[in-house]
Design brief:
It is built from 4 helices and no strands.
């Protein structure tokens, strides 16, 4: 994830409406980056599984608004690929 940090941040920011990745909590940002990384770079993990795992982590460690943002961004990226 660290190797692709700028790419992941740019992609997240591209798909957030009226938000930036640095505006959400650090845990939520980390979850979003991991989800994006899995969708883009991990061929062994189905995208729907990566999205579901990110949402489950967000439910446990972030607020409802951040969970919704993570879900929306990952869904948009998934639909592009």
């Amino acid at each position: 994830v660290i190797t692709h940090l700028d790419t992941l941040n740019d992609l997240a920011n591209k798909h957030m409406k009226d938000w930036r990745i640095n505006r959400i909590d650090k845990t939520g940002a980390a979850i979003l980056r991991i989800g994006l990384y899995e969708i883009l770079y991990e061929e062994d993990t189905p995208n729907i599984v990566a999205i579901n795992e990110a949402i489950e982590l967000a439910k446990k460690y972030s607020g409802d608004n951040v969970r919704k943002i993570i879900n929306a961004v990952l869904d948009k990226v998934n639909n592009e690929n």
